[in-house]
Amino acid sequence: MKTTFLDFEQPIAELEGKIEQLRFVQDDSAVDISEEIARLEAKSQALTKELYAKLTPWQIAQVARHPQRPYTLDYVQHIFTGFEELHGDRAFADDKAIVGGLARFNGQSCVVIGHQKGRDTKEKIARNFGMPRPEGYRKAMRLMKLAEKFGLPVFTFVDTPGAYPGIGAEERGQSEAIGHNLYVMAELKVPLICTVIGEGGSGGALAIAVGDQTMMLQYSTYSVISPEGCASILWKSAEKASEAAETMGITAARLKSLGLIDKIINEPVGGAHRDHRAMAQSLKRALGEALRQVDSLSPAELIEQRLERLMGYGRFKEQQAA
Amino acid sequence: MSWLQKLLPPKIKRSETAARNKSIPEGLWSKCPSCEAVLYRSDLESNQSVCPKCGHHQRLRARTRLDLLLDAEGRFEIGAEVMPVDPLKFKDSRRYTERLSSAVADTGEADAMVVMQGAIQTVPVVVACFEFEFLGGSMGSVVGERFVRGARAALEQRLPFICITATGGARMQEGLFSLMQMAKTTAVITQLAQRKLPFITLLTDPTMGGVSASFAFMGDVVIAEPGALIGFAGPRVIEQTVREKLPEGFQRSEFLLEKGAIDMIVDRRELRERLADLLTLMCRQPSVKA
C-alpha cells in the first residue's frame, strides 16, 4: 500500500518519490544504483524521525486522522483471537460506527468495543465516518453489561470525530445514550481498559472511555471539542484550528502531564499508519500491563478505585467566598 | 428609555444606571420575547418571569430560581468555597482569566453553579442550579466539583438531590478537564442510586452538549420547563451537517416529551408543589398537600 502523505510531510514525499523513480530505473539499468537508493532511504527515515520529533498539536491532529491509520478492527485482528462480533442495540438498529464483541486476549475471554471508521468511500459512509448514533452507544452498553454478567474485562478503543449531530440521532436520544453509558461505566463490576487510538472527539469519545486505565497512542488526540469547532466558536474562524489545538491541550504528551491520562503508547517512526503490525505489538503489551494492574482487584475495590479517580478530575482552588 | 429618563440630566442618569447590575435589564417595562406583549416588569417578576399573556418561560438567574423554589427558612449554600483556576493558561481572542473576571463582575457569581440545601414545601433537599449568565452556564471543574459536593451532602444526610440545568455544555477553556466533569458528575449519581435517594433533573432553556449528555437524563424523574431548548448538538450544527431544514419545534421540551425523552413538562408556577409531591411519593412519605 502506498503511503498517503500529509501536507507537512511533503519533504518526505519528495524523497520517497525520488527513491521510487530510482527503483524503476534500476530494473533496466546496467549501473548499480542500489547504494544510492539505500542512502536515500536512510535519509528519508532520518527526515521522518526529525519531522515527527517536533510535530505541532495541529499536525498531530492530522496524523490522528490519517486515512491509513489502523482502526479498531485492525487491532482486533492483530491483538485478539477468536473475535465474535455482536451486533445491534435490540431496539432500533446496528450502528456500524461502533463495533464490538467477544474475543480472547492472550487466551483470556474478554469484550472488545471500539469506534470504527471506513477505508473506502462506501465503507466510510456505512460507518458514518466513525460518528455513532444513539444505537451505537446502546450496543456498546449492552456489550458492557454482557461483560459484567460473565466477569470479562472490557477493552475499548476510541477513534471518533464525535457523536453524530443528526436529526434522527437527537430524536432517539443521543444525550441520554451517552449519559447512560457514563453512568454504567462508573459502576461496571469488571475492568475497563480504554485506549484512544486516533481521534478522541468529545462526548462521543468519552461515552466508551470511562475506565480504570486510560491510555493514548503517541499521535492520538483527545479533546472536549474539535480544534475546528473550538476555533469557529472562540475565534469566530475555523482557520484558527491550529491555535485552538495548541491552547486546548489535545495531545497525549500534554494530557499526560496534566494527569488526565495514565500512559502514552509510543508509535513507530512516522506514525502508526507506517507499520500496523509494530503498532499493534506495542499496544498489545500496554494492554496486558494495564490489565495486570487492575485484574486482581475485587469488584468492590475496582469500583471504589474508579470512583476515586473520577472524583479527582478537575482543577480548582478553595477559599472562602468574599 | 422612558420620557422621564430622557428629561433627566446626564449626571443623575449615570449614577442611577451605574448602581445597577449590568446584566439586569433596565426600565419598568419589558417585552415578552415570544408574544411581544409589553409587560410591567413587576407583573412579570411576581409571575416568576412567566409571561402572563402567553406563558413563555423567561430564563432565570440561579439565585432567583433557588429563591422561588426553596422555602425561605433554613437554606444555606454548599460548595461556594470552590473557585475557578486557569489550568491550561487558555487564551483565544481574550484570556480565560479575563473572561472569568468579567463574568464575575457581570453576575456576582464565582462560577456557573450555585448549590443550596433547603426544603421544598418542608421536604428537605439539596438543589444544584446552573447560572446561565456565567459563561453560558458552561461546565468546568468548579461546576463539576460543586455538583459533587452537593450530591455528597445529599448522600451524607440521606436527602434527595435535584439539579436544575441551564447550560450550553462543557467549558472549552478548560479543555479535557471539562469533558471529564461529565464522567465525574454522572459517577456520583450512581452513589445516590445505590442508597435509594431520589435524583430529579429539571431541564430549563437551554440544556445542551456535555451537560445534556451526562447526568441530565439520568434523573429518576426528568422534568423540563415549557419551550426549553434541550439537545446534544446545537440546531445550527445539525442544520449544517444534514443540510436540511429542521422540523418545527425540534429539540424543544414538547418535542422531547413526544419522543419519550422526558417524563413531564411542568409550569414554573406549579413547580414547588409538583416536586414536593414527586419526592414524597418516591420516598414513601405522606403528602405535604394541605
TrEMBL record, chain A:
<feature type="domain" description="CoA carboxyltransferase C-terminal">
    <location>
        <begin position="39"/>
        <end position="293"/>
    </location>
</feature>
<dbReference type="InterPro" id="IPR029045">
    <property type="entry name" value="ClpP/crotonase-like_dom_sf"/>
</dbReference>
<keyword id="KW-0276">Fatty acid metabolism</keyword>
<dbReference type="InterPro" id="IPR011763">
    <property type="entry name" value="COA_CT_C"/>
</dbReference>
<dbReference type="GO" id="GO:0006633">
    <property type="term" value="P:fatty acid biosynthetic process"/>
</dbReference>
<comment type="pathway">
    <text>Lipid metabolism; malonyl-CoA biosynthesis; malonyl-CoA from acetyl-CoA: step 1/1.</text>
</comment>
<keyword id="KW-0547">Nucleotide-binding</keyword>
<keyword id="KW-0963">Cytoplasm</keyword>
<keyword id="KW-0443">Lipid metabolism</keyword>
<comment type="similarity">
    <text>Belongs to the AccA family.</text>
</comment>
<comment type="subunit">
    <text>Acetyl-CoA carboxylase is a heterohexamer composed of biotin carboxyl carrier protein (AccB), biotin carboxylase (AccC) and two subunits each of ACCase subunit alpha (AccA) and ACCase subunit beta (AccD).</text>
</comment>
<keyword id="KW-0067">ATP-binding</keyword>
<dbReference type="Pfam" id="PF03255">
    <property type="entry name" value="ACCA"/>
</dbReference>
<dbReference type="GO" id="GO:0003989">
    <property type="term" value="F:acetyl-CoA carboxylase activity"/>
</dbReference>
<dbReference type="InterPro" id="IPR001095">
    <property type="entry name" value="Acetyl_CoA_COase_a_su"/>
</dbReference>
<dbReference type="GO" id="GO:0005524">
    <property type="term" value="F:ATP binding"/>
</dbReference>
<keyword id="KW-0808">Transferase</keyword>
<keyword id="KW-0275">Fatty acid biosynthesis</keyword>
<dbReference type="GO" id="GO:2001295">
    <property type="term" value="P:malonyl-CoA biosynthetic process"/>
</dbReference>
<dbReference type="GO" id="GO:0016743">
    <property type="term" value="F:carboxyl- or carbamoyltransferase activity"/>
</dbReference>
<dbReference type="GO" id="GO:0009317">
    <property type="term" value="C:acetyl-CoA carboxylase complex"/>
</dbReference>
<keyword id="KW-0444">Lipid biosynthesis</keyword>
From TrEMBL, chain B:
<dbReference type="Pfam" id="PF01039">
    <property type="entry name" value="Carboxyl_trans"/>
</dbReference>
<keyword id="KW-0443">Lipid metabolism</keyword>
<keyword id="KW-0963">Cytoplasm</keyword>
<dbReference type="GO" id="GO:2001295">
    <property type="term" value="P:malonyl-CoA biosynthetic process"/>
</dbReference>
<dbReference type="GO" id="GO:0016743">
    <property type="term" value="F:carboxyl- or carbamoyltransferase activity"/>
</dbReference>
<feature type="binding site">
    <location>
        <position position="35"/>
    </location>
    <ligand>
        <name>Zn(2+)</name>
    </ligand>
</feature>
<dbReference type="GO" id="GO:0009329">
    <property type="term" value="C:acetate CoA-transferase complex"/>
</dbReference>
<dbReference type="Pfam" id="PF17848">
    <property type="entry name" value="Zn_ribbon_ACC"/>
</dbReference>
<keyword id="KW-0276">Fatty acid metabolism</keyword>
<keyword id="KW-0863">Zinc-finger</keyword>
<keyword id="KW-0275">Fatty acid biosynthesis</keyword>
<protein>
    <recommendedName>
        <fullName>Acetyl-coenzyme A carboxylase carboxyl transferase subunit beta</fullName>
        <ecNumber>2.1.3.15</ecNumber>
    </recommendedName>
</protein>
<keyword id="KW-0067">ATP-binding</keyword>
<keyword id="KW-0808">Transferase</keyword>
<keyword id="KW-0547">Nucleotide-binding</keyword>
<dbReference type="InterPro" id="IPR034733">
    <property type="entry name" value="AcCoA_carboxyl_beta"/>
</dbReference>
<dbReference type="InterPro" id="IPR041010">
    <property type="entry name" value="Znf-ACC"/>
</dbReference>
<dbReference type="InterPro" id="IPR000438">
    <property type="entry name" value="Acetyl_CoA_COase_Trfase_b_su"/>
</dbReference>
<comment type="function">
    <text>Component of the acetyl coenzyme A carboxylase (ACC) complex. Biotin carboxylase (BC) catalyzes the carboxylation of biotin on its carrier protein (BCCP) and then the CO(2) group is transferred by the transcarboxylase to acetyl-CoA to form malonyl-CoA.</text>
</comment>
<feature type="zinc finger region" description="C4-type">
    <location>
        <begin position="32"/>
        <end position="54"/>
    </location>
</feature>
<keyword id="KW-0444">Lipid biosynthesis</keyword>
<feature type="domain" description="CoA carboxyltransferase N-terminal">
    <location>
        <begin position="28"/>
        <end position="290"/>
    </location>
</feature>
